[in-house]
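INTERNAL TRANSFER SHEET
From: sequence group
To: structure group
Subject: Germin-like protein

Please process the attached sequence and return the structure record in the designated field. Keep the field labels unchanged so the import script can parse them.
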Amino acid sequence: MMNGLAVFSMLFLLAKPFSAGSANIEIDYCIADLSLPRGPQGYACKDPAKVTTDDFVFTGFRGEKSITNIFGNNVTRANHTTFPALNGLGLSMARLDLAVGGVVPAHSHRTSEMIVLINGTIIAGIIDTNNTAYYKVLLPGDSMIFPQTLLHFQINVGKTRALAFVGLNGANPGFQIASTALFAGNLPPEIASAITLISPKEVRRLNQIFSGNIAAS
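Return from structure group:
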């Protein structure tokens, strides 16, 4: 069962507050008009005359989520593209489902992130720029913060599926997995080998593992 108070608190803390001293508030909201191009600050606003209550509601976290990728996870994102009401608010969310033994591999964002575990048992951790790892077993109701740009990860170490929700203080936080960046893109095996000290043969094996097998991660 989703701990609504915990998730609300997470969003309240992560949201970038508007104040008279920091911003000139001239409109109440800016529902994204997805029919127009997106700029660095987000989308243009939908015509207020066409805004409805449904624009402020996101239902994408409902129901059971299928897990089919190589990492054993499913990440359902609520950002300014999937939930246009977030446009201009400087925050986003995601639902994280992890199969038994599933992982969210080491990755980073442009933003900070806070996780609230709802069901299951996971190990969550951070690796800072001194290569020091901070990790802990989280139980339902526990939270952990991942500072912006630092590598972090989650592993389901329980005997059941794990469910967590995360909040991020950016509408477009980015999501870069270290392993797939190196071995699932267009980086030539020779270069990947040179910068990782992994043999070209092993790099090609990793290319085969990750390429085409990372959907929904």
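Handover comment: The CA atoms of residues 153 and 216 lie 16 Å apart. Confidence is low (pLDDT under 50) at residues 17-22.
Transfer complete.
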